[in-house]
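hey
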C-alpha cells in the first residue's frame, strides 16, 4: 500500500491539483491521509473539499477547518488569517460545512496517529522542537504520529526506549527508512509552505518498503495570487505564497 500524506492545503486548489498530477506520474497511491487545514487563507475552499472527497482518504480537523464552521474560536488568529477564514466560511456550501464539522480531531490508521497540531492539543499546538515532540511521543497510543500545522517538513525520531528525541529536516527525494524507532513526521504544507521554498510539499509512505519520501512540486503561484486579489483576500497573504513563508 502507498499512502500519500498531505497537510495544510489551505484552499489552494492549484497546488493540490499539481500534487495530484505529480503523484500520478510517480505511480499513484492507494489511500490519502489529510492532516487538516484543507480550508483557510486561499481562494478555493469548497473546490478543495470536493476534490479531496473524490479520493479514498482519512482526514482530521485543523484549526482553520473548525473555525470556518464555528467549532473553534477565531480569537487566536491574527487579523488577516481571521479575515481569510471568514471569507472562506462564506464560500462554503452545506455539504462542505457538514464535511468539515464531521472531521475528527484524531484518527488512527494502523501504526499511525493522525492529528493536525499534536496528540495532546490536536487543533492548536505546533510541534517545532524536540521538547514538544517528546511530549507528543509520551501522549501517543500508537508508535508513530503524523502532524501538520507548522507548514514545515520535519521529522522527529525517538528510540523504542523512551529516551531523548532528535530532529531531522527531511530532504526532497531522499527516502527515509522507518526502522526500529518511533516517528513523528510533518510532510510540510501543500498550499502555503513556510520554509522559504514556495513549492507545494507532500510525502508518500510505502508500507511494504517502510520508507517515507518527501516531494516538492512547483505550481502556478501567480494564478493563485491573481485569484486572491480578484476576490479581495489580504494582499500580504498572496505575496507570501511567492516567497514560501
Ligand atoms: Zn495551517
Amino acid at each position: 500500500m502507498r499512502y500519500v500524506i498531505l497537510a495544510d492545503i489551505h484552499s489552494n486548489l492549484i497546488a493540490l491539483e499539481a500534487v495530484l498530477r505529480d503523484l500520478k506520474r510517480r505511480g499513484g497511491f492507494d489511500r490519502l491521509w489529510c492532516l487538516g487545514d484543507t480550508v483557510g487563507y486561499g481562494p478555493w475552499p469548497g473546490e478543495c473539499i470536493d476534490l479531496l472527497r473524490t479520493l479514498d482518504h482519512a482526514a482530521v480537523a485543523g484549526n482553520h477547518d473548525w473555525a470556518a464552521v464555528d467549532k473553534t474560536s477565531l480569537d487566536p488568529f491574527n487579523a488577516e488569517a481571521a479575515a481569510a477564514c471568514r471569507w472562506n466560511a462564506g464560500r462554503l456550501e452545506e455539504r462542505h460545512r457538514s464535511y468539515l464539522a464531521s472531521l475528527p480531531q484524531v484518527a488512527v490508521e494502523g501504526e499511525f496517529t493522525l492529528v493536525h497540531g499534536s496528540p495532546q492539543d490536536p487543533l492548536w499546538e505546533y510541534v517545532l522542537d524536540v521538547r514538544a515532540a517528546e511530549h507528543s511521543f509520551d501522549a501517543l497510543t500508537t508508535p508513530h504520529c503524523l502532524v501538520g500545522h507548522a507548514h514545515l517538513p520535519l521529522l522527529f525520531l525517538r528510540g523504542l526506549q523512551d529516551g531523548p528525541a532528535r530532529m531531522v529536516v527531511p530532504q526532497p527525494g531522499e527516502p527515509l527508512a522507518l526502522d526500529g524507532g518511533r516517528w513523528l513526521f510533518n510532510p510540510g504544507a501543500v498550499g502555503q509552505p513556510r520554509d522559504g521554498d514556495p513549492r507545494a510539499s507532500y510525502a508518500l509512505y510505502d508500507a511494504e518498503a517502510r520508507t517515507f519520501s518527501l516531494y516538492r512540486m512547483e505550481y502556478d503561484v501567480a494564478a493563485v495570487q491573481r485569484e486572491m486579489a480578484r476576490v479581495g483576500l489580504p494582499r500580504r497573504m498572496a505575496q507570501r505564497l511567492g516567497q514560501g513563508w
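The helical segments are 13-25, 45-52, 63-68, 79-91, 94-102, 130-139, 221-231, 235-243. The mean pLDDT is 96.
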